[in-house]
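Q: Given only this backbone (258 positions), what sequence would you predict?
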């Protein structure tokens, strides 16, 4: 983290876990043990049906609620889909876009780009995910792959909007596997992402961009990952389902400013 230029963000991704009742219970427990110090921003991205209960439960706290996906269209015949203005009206501040689990269901870089634009237009902070598979890492094309995902995902987005986007580097081989990238491996790619942004949008915007690491980050490995200068926080799956674990990750952002 480099807290001189960026406020860290710890964001949870609940995926398809918890009912609205369980979401409310989680928030009550989480609020009860959340430290008062504001070392980082906090977001919980929850299943769509949990959004109203979660938003109600965190009212007048600093916990932000986000969605796990959105549709790029404003309205219309898209059965089962949710538009960005609906998420805003429901009280969301963030939306995860391009998670590898959604890319595996057919989401393309072009879809990601359209969703990022729609989220920005609605006033949501997109958390745009990228990351390579194990096969891609082992064949030495991580850099090339992530560069393509970032360039296509951000295509046509004006410089002043880039600082409103959070980027999450999530190597697919580390998601939900318990196999975390080493702090060095994670830093190498987060540094690459910042370099891509610097080249395209300039040093000032690159310095202000929040880049997260995600992939089996937990209460034990968070401190070392977050100590790296280009890792500004985490996108947390499994460990965000347990209030005590999630709080420990938040506490791991309490490190001396680099
Ligand atoms: C994720 O779903 O974005 C994620 C990083 O999951 P986990 O922390 O469980 O690996």
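A: Predicted residues:
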């Amino acid at each position: 983290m480099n807290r001189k230029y960026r406020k860290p963000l710890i964001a949870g991704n609940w995926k398809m876990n918890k009912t609205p009742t369980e979401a409310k219970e989680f928030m009550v427990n989480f609020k009860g043990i959340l430290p008062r110090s504001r070392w980082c921003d906090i977001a919980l991205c929850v299943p769509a049906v949990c959004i109203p209960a979660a938003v109600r439960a965190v009212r007048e706290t600093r916990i932000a609620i986000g969605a796990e996906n959105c549709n790029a269209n404003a309205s219309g015949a898209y059965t089962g889909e949710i538009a960005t203005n609906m998420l805003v009206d429901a009280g969301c501040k963030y939306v995860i876009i391009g998670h590898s689990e959604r890319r595996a269901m057919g989401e393309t870089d072009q879809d990601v780009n359209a969703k990022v634009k729609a989220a920005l237009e609605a006033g949501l902070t997109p958390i745009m995910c990228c990351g390579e598979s194990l096969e891609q890492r082992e064949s030495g094309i991580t850099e090339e792959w992530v560069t393509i995902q970032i360039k296509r995902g951000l295509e046509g987005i004006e410089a002043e909007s880039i600082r409103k986007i959070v980027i999450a580097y999530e190597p697919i081989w580390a998601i939900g596997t318990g196999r975390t990238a080493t702090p060095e491996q994670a830093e190498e790619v987060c540094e690459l992402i910042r370099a891509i942004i610097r080249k395209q949008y300039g040093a000032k915007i690159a310095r202000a961009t929040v880049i997260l690491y995600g992939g089996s980050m937990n209460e034990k490995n968070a401190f070392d990952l977050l100590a790296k200068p280009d890792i500004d926080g985490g996108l947390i799956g499994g460990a965000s389902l347990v209030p005590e674990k999630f709080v420990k990750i938040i506490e791991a952002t309490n490190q001396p400013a680099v």
